[in-house]
Every structure is written in C-alpha cells, then in structure tokens.
C-alpha cells in the first residue's frame, strides 16, 4: 500500500487548506481500516487531526473539530482534508496514513508528507 498526499505549499492566514491523499494498492473502503491525517510542526511532535473510516464515518481531534472536515472520493480512492481559517500556527508537515486499531492508533502506512506554510 502506498499513500501520496498533495496540496498547496503556501497559504495566507484565514484561507482554507485543502489536501488530498491518494491510496494505491488498497481500497479505502476495505474493512476495517481508518484513513487519517496527521501533522507535525517543526521541532514538535505528531498531532493527529482526524480520520475517515472504510464506511465513510469521520472522526476528529476535539481541538481541531470546529475547523476540520475530512471527506473521500471512492471512485478515485482518495480522501481529503479541509482546514478552514488557517493561521501561522497551522504551519507543519502534513501526513496521511492508514490506521489499523482505531482512527488514531497503530499506523502502518504513511505518505511522504507535504509541507504547508501559512504566512502573510
């Protein structure tokens, strides 16, 4: 299984971040996987943002829930993250990953990560 994420590298404050993750070698509708978004600001730890599971159910970090939306396109085998009202604090490397045990547990496959910078 391979995951590849992409999106705009540079955003201005208050804009909406949209990232897409394409999955190859496995279906996003296969039971019982979760497809997650995780980010890592420079010099800090990983932060789980949210996930969508094989059935289309979504899960969000409480701290980001008001600004985050995750959706999927099963015809393209892709899932997407939207983060509204970005600030410089959202600057990070963003990863998509597959989780096994729960929406934020036991990640076995990761994308390579994409840098997102929020700056005026």
- Kindly report how far apart the N and C termini lie: 37 Å
Provide the gyration radius in Å: 13 Å
Number of E-type strands: 11
The dominant shape is globular
SSE-based structural type: mainly beta
Low-confidence stretches: none
Query: Helix amount, in percent?
Result: under 10%
The helix tally amounts to 0
**Element order, helices and strands?**
EEEEEEEEEEE
| Largest β-sheet summary | 7 strands, mixed
Average pLDDT level:
97
Strand content: over 45%
Write a brief structural summary:
The chain has 120 residues and is an all-beta fold.
Essential attributes:
single chain, about 120 residues, mainly beta, seven-stranded mixed sheet, four-stranded antiparallel sheet, about 55% strand, globular
Describe the structure.
- This protein has strands at 2-6, 10-11, 17-24, 34-40, 47-53, 58-60, 68-73, 78-83, 92-102, 105-110, 114-118.
- It is mainly beta and 120 residues long.
- Strands 2, 4, 5, 6, 9, 10 and 11 form a 7-stranded mixed β-sheet that branches. Strands 1-3-8-7 form a 4-stranded antiparallel β-sheet, with no helix packed on it.
- It is globular, with a radius of gyration of 13 Å.
- The model has no long low-confidence stretch (mean pLDDT 97).
């Amino acid at each position: 299984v391979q995951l590849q994420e992409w999106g705009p590298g540079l955003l201005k404050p208050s804009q909406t971040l949209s990232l897409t993750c394409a999955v190859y070698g496995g279906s996003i509708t296969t039971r019982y996987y979760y497809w997650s978004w995780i980010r890592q600001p420079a010099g800090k730890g990983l932060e789980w943002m949210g996930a969508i599971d094989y059935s289309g159910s979504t899960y969000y970090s409480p701290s980001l829930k008001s600004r985050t939306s995750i959706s999927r396109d099963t015809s393209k085998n892709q899932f997407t993250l939207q983060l509204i009202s970005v600030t410089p604090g959202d600057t990070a490397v963003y990863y998509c990953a597959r989780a096994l045990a729960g929406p934020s547990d036991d990640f076995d496959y990761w994308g390579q990560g994409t840098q997102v910078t929020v700056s005026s």
